Amino acid sequence: MNNAWHTEMLAEGRVGDRRIGDRDIVDKVRRAVLMQRLPPGTKLPEVTLGEVFGVSRSVVRKALTRLASEHVIDQRPNQVARVRAPSIEETRETFDARRLVEGEVVALLAGRLPAEPMAALAEQVRGEVAAFERGDEPARIEHSLTLHHLLAEHSPNRVLGAMLTDLVLRTSIVIALYKRAGLASCYLAGDHSRLLAHLEAGDAEAARGDIHDHLNGLEALLDLSPREARIDLKSILGRAPEQA
Amino acid sequence: MNNAWHTEMLAEGRVGDRRIGDRDIVDKVRRAVLMQRLPPGTKLPEVTLGEVFGVSRSVVRKALTRLASEHVIDQRPNQVARVRAPSIEETRETFDARRLVEGEVVALLAGRLPAEPMAALAEQVRGEVAAFERGDEPARIEHSLTLHHLLAEHSPNRVLGAMLTDLVLRTSIVIALYKRAGLASCYLAGDHSRLLAHLEAGDAEAARGDIHDHLNGLEALLDLSPREARIDLKSILGRAPEQA
DNA sequence: GGGCAGCTTCTTGTATACAAAATATCGCCA
DNA sequence: TGGCGATATTTTGTATACAAGAAGCTGCCC
């Protein structure tokens, strides 16, 4: 069994002296999936995770249940949990859902953002641009994620905000999965700053349009051609890509 | 401690010879909350539930985690799980979110429903009308819930469908919670059949409008006046309504 | 050489024991 | 009588042991 990721996961940075809880495991696994250190189909046995994090299966189990409810892993009865591989179909549907929800959120947000959160958003945009220009893709992704996360957090409608948080995560996963091979970065210059300008100006419909354009652009950067042979067969019929 | 609901819950109907699992517990508790047999704030200790269902805390624990992710209960660290009491604010936001999502789902569905699911929808409408006319409110709720559940299930976009399932549940809970005292039923005659007609005719925007009207009507039947003293203080400062 | 049966091993499902935290109770004192 | 504090009880958090099921493997047979 490929056990390279065991050490990788711990190297991610230890939690302080605090006792490690299920939340820490959820965060670390989610992050690892997002960063493609845990490719789709990877098996996540409970004992192994427990050894890695130094806790018993009880804690791991709770973490896995949460990850499953976040759609990060697949958990089937009497079977080892695996990193989920959303289908092309589901990818399209996730983008559609996010267009609807995030569009509404930014429309609600337009002109209603206090100065402080607005500054935080601008800060992320600056960070993203800088990271892109120096070719630091992980940092760029981090800033982009934080930006959309902030939008979700400040949503006047918290129910929609929570849904958006979920959708941002799922979208990021499929972007990492289906990004065209040659592409170095899924960056669309100007999209985010244009959105912020419209938010500040209070133009709800323009902001909604920005989100639509942004997500359309992102989706266009993916390789969503219907050759099913690649991901689906592997996860449905085949085994995990151990030595792939 | 008021332990009347222990027997009520079992009386709901035993699972066959099958071993009782976490899913059964989730279903039963969810249903009991929906039917207001488990009022908001009710404590749900793990051992008690375990005794009621004849399983150990492990199974109960998993069930509680799932119920928390469905927003049916509140689970805070080192504290007994309680039936959730959504605030008035959250109630409004839930309705807004559902208007957005269910509106989109029926718009996508318009004109694209095969005959068989369409017939199933019509069947629920007939059942709802009949139940209303004979004054059988539980049956009417059941049919109404099934109807919206079917819409969610047949959503072409399954991501939105899953979100709608969640929103229908949450809306039902708050309707039960905030229904005006004197009101016997939250029934809006004709709404559902009108929606079905537009779905069959393939008029997406009319169907979306039907959903908006329907949910607006429902929301108007609730008592959402901002006297915070009723629910919020009780759950924030007070104790569970044991003998209330 | 390919396929299948039976067995071994690994992994999850469930129950239970103990530790830690929160809650409730009782008694004390102003 | 009312508030406050220590103690006792309840309840959750975590670890572990055992049972049940699935996956993998060996060796046999065709």
Automatic annotation (TrEMBL), chains A, B:
Entries under InterPro entries matching the protein: GntR_C, TF_FadR/GntR_C, Tscrpt_reg_HTH_GntR, WH-like_DNA-bd_sf, WH_DNA-bd_sf
UniProt entry tagged with the keyword Hydrolase: no
Keywords assigned by UniProt, alphabetized: DNA-binding, Transcription, Transcription regulation
UniProt-listed Pfam families: FCD, GntR
GO molecular function terms noted in the UniProt entry: DNA binding; DNA-binding transcription factor activity
SUPFAM superfamilies assigned to the protein according to its UniProt record, in alphabetical order: GntR ligand-binding domain-like, Winged helix' DNA-binding domain
The protein's name: DNA-binding GntR family transcriptional regulator
Keyword Iron listed: no
Domain HTH gntR-type residue range list: 19-86
Gene source species: Halomonas stenophila
